Amino acid sequence: MAKEEQGSTVLAFPKKEGRKPSSTEVIWGKDIVRHGYTAVPNILLQAQHRLGISATQLNIIVQLLEYWQRPDTIHSPPSRSSLIGWDAVQKPSRRMFASLKAPA
How does pLDDT run across 19-28, given as a tens digit for each residue? Predict the structure, then answer.
């Protein structure tokens, strides 16, 4: 569709279609995804027992993944008690974190 304006031809650009929602947006909805999304490797879920990871340890790992947005940088959460998401007693919490450290 050309349009003549003062001796020049102007072509109308086709209108862009809206961005298609990602599969994550389709599943969870835009409002949920807007708050952030953390990918959890399936192997952690599938091999939890073989890896010897308790439910509490898996919860901590999943919550730590929120702070790992780039491969070269891991940001620490503000505090361990806020990371866990419930009022944890400090001593058991320290033991739980220590149990997650890789063997030397």
Answer: 889 999 999 9
Contacts 24+ apart (CB under 8 A), 93-101: 96/56, 96/57, 96/60, 97/60, 99/57, 100/57, 100/60, 100/61
Question: Has residue 15 been placed in a domain?
Answer: no
Indicate the pTM of the whole model.
0.56
Residue 56: Cβ within 10 Å count: 16
Within-domain flag for 86: yes
Q: Is residue 73 part of a domain?
A: yes
Query: Does residue 93 carry a pLDDT above 80?
Result: no
Please give the tally of structural domains in the chain.
Answer: 1
The parent domain of residue 56 ranges over 23-97
| Residue 61, in any domain of the structure | yes
Whether the Cβ atoms of residue 37 and residue 31 lie closer than 8 Å to each other: no
Mean pLDDT, residues 82-91 taken together = 51
